[in-house]
Write a structure and sequence with these properties.
Elements (H helix, E strand, L loop, with lengths): L3 E10 L2 E11 L4 E5 L6 H8 L7 E6 L2 E2 L5 H6 L2 E3 L12 H7 L9 H4 L8 H19 L15 H14 L4 E5 L7 H17 L3 E5 L3 H7 L2 E6 L2 E6 L1 H6 L1 H8 L3
Helix pairs in contact: 3-6, 5-6
């Protein structure tokens, strides 16, 4: 059984078909990249997985459980986290506070029990410390200690991308969806991001699906690649095999 299985997925918006009978199986522990030209349907796949879109047809199962029909918060509670192509952070909040928001699905105390936060031994106080300790480990892992108490708005773009990555990690996912993680970064930042992604897979034991346009990054980091074009799956396999696929060459990679 595949860790994540997408079968016969189709979705349309009005008269526009975004995905047509897409099937993708993802094995646990992989870094799988989805490539294709703009409008190929890459982010639409992510939106279907996370419950933002409901497909017209098909099934998406995660560890044997159906995802179609679930709300985004239900999908997140099952261990699926994502980043976005356009950074989705609370810009006036600090790095620490943004990462703590990623812990919300693990918080047991509510507004009423939180009101009893009177002593360091209270349940709410203990939980607060546990969540902060978890976030501190992520901050250290991503080497963004200097940004801990700075509002996100004041951080360089590359650091903000790491903060968003850190917030996703704070959810303790077993499946992480990265939507163009290197977009807008310089070459040094892209190289660093490649190492972070590998380390997340290896150290946190997280399966990763990545949408990415930088083909050097894709070829260097991916265990498998899925190629889409106009909502149709062209190929899935090892990077070298997909790179040589004639349909992929024509649609995206170019005759090189």
């Amino acid at each position: 059984m595949a860790f994540l299985s997408i079968q016969d997925l189709s979705i349309s918006f009005g008269g526009l078909t975004a995905l047509t009978h897409i099937s993708i199986d993802v094995r646990q522990g992989l870094i799988l990249s989805i490539i294709g030209p703009n409008g190929a349907g890459k982010t639409t796949v992510f939106n279907c997985i996370t419950g933002i879109y409901r497909p017209n047809q098909g099934s998406i199962t995660f560890q044997g459980k159906e995802l179609v029909g679930k709300k985004p918060y239900q999908v997140a509670s099952m261990g699926i986290a994502r980043t976005f192509q356009n950074i989705e952070l609370f810009s006036h909040m600090t790095t620490m506070d943004n990462l703590l928001l990623g812990r919300h699905i693990h918080m047991k105390t509510n507004v009423f029990t939180g009101a009893t936060f009177l002593t360091r031994r209270s349940p709410a106080a203990r939980e607060e410390r546990e969540h902060r300790e978890r976030v501190e480990r992520i901050i250290e892992f991503l080497e963004i200690e200097s940004a801990r108490d700075i509002p996100v708005l004041a951080l360089p773009y590359g650091t903000r991308k790491l903060v968003e990555l850190g917030r996703a990690l704070a959810m303790e996912p077993t499946l992480l969806l990265l939507d163009e993680p290197s977009a807008g970064m310089n070459q040094e930042e892209k190289r660093d991001m490649m190492f972070w992604i590998r380390d997340i897979r290896d150290d946190f034991k997280v399966t990763i699906i990545m949408v990415e346009h930088d083909m050097n990054l894709v070829m260097d980091i991916s265990d498998e690649i899925v190629a889409l074009n106009f909502g149709v799956k062209l190929a899935q396999g090892a990077p070298n095999a997909v790179q040589k696929n004639p349909e992929v060459l024509e649609a995206y990679l170019g005759q090189q």
